TrEMBL record:
Alphabetized PANTHER family for the sequence: APOPTOSIS-INDUCING FACTOR 1, RIESKE DOMAIN-CONTAINING PROTEIN-RELATED
Protein name (database record): FAD/NAD(P)-binding oxidoreductase
InterPro entries, per database record: FAD-oxidoreductase/Apoptosis, FAD/NAD-bd_sf, FAD/NAD-binding_dom, FAD/NAD-linked_Rdtase_dimer_sf, Reductase_C
Domain Reductase C-terminal: 322-387
Keywords per UniProt: FAD, Flavoprotein, Oxidoreductase
Domain FAD/NAD(P)-binding: from-to ranges: 3-301
Requisite cofactors: FAD
Amino acid sequence: MTRLVVVGASLAGLRAVEAARRAGFDGEIVLIGQETHLPYDRPPLSKRYLVGEAEADFWRTEAELRDDLRVDLRLGETATALRPERRVIETTAGEIGYDRLILATGAAPRILPGLPDLEGIVTLRNLEDADELRDRLTPGANIVVLGAGFIGSEIASSASKLGATATVIEGAPVPLVRAVGEVVGAALAELHPRNGTRLELATTISEYRGEGGRLTEVVLSTGEVLPADLVVIGIGAAPATSWLEGSGIELHPRDRGVVCDVALRTSLPDVWAAGDIVHWPNAVYDQSMRLENWTNASDQGLRAGANAADPTHADEYQTVPYFWSDWYGHRIQFVGVASGEVEFISGSPDDDRFVAIFVDGDRVIAAATVNEPRKIMKLRRLIAERGDRSGALAIVHPELVTKE
């Protein structure tokens, strides 16, 4: 019997299992997960879960996984090495062989070197981290968030909602440039001070101070001392692929993500990959990219699972990237790749509601919106169809379209 092993029991890994079964794969499926929890939804951890408005959302029960999907579920196991010459994965619980393999280990938070061993310096990546944060985010607490990216900004927003005093420290002069570009990044950054959160740009933390093993304050690169009951490190994530070193698989020289082809096949025979770890050539933009967002993890998992189930009929994976975030009650959405010229076709950078498009010549290649949820998916379709500025204007301002 053919055995498909999926390493990574989060969104991409679960979707790969589901897609493989839907595609008719009738062999054995083994799902390996480092955490002891069943697969759960991660985006709420920095938002509704953190403020106590929702509990953990587990996508499948153990009975559904084991009985309905016929999965050999291996939770609490960590993959430590891949031995393709023997078609074996080494884990903390022993070895397991595979006939086909999907890698979906996601990304891990970047950790600053040299951090002191003080209680109160934390990251947010999993359910346990969120539980610790939820206990510490109390009214009146002084919270310092290092990093004004999406995770850091969501945490600052949640802290504010709970009555804590939040300060966001960002090393760059403009946050989120890689994700949404400089113009939109600067516009989004203004949501912090407009909602009572202090934001310090082009600033770092130069010293962490504590008493009795517990954090009490931080010193900024400007020399200012801030009281700090808690520092949340939110400076991004890196592909969780260290366990693949030495396996012979091709890893990207910049960040050690897994290099795949258009069908999400890796450089090793019968091995695919999905989610945050994947570099692949996206035909929509004629360029290689790696994405870290919920939509891509889900969609790549589905494609990798279907392709692994029936490799002879593998389909290419291409997409217009899409992600969203919620800050201070505002829904931020982005589609595409942030490059080209930026034009605000509705609202302005100073508004709490706007639509901005990114154009290359006349072609729309990306769009950013705040509090315009009904327009974003129409703009995504326009980008996929290589539409132009007039098409974007017709979506955002249909009242201006001349009726013949």
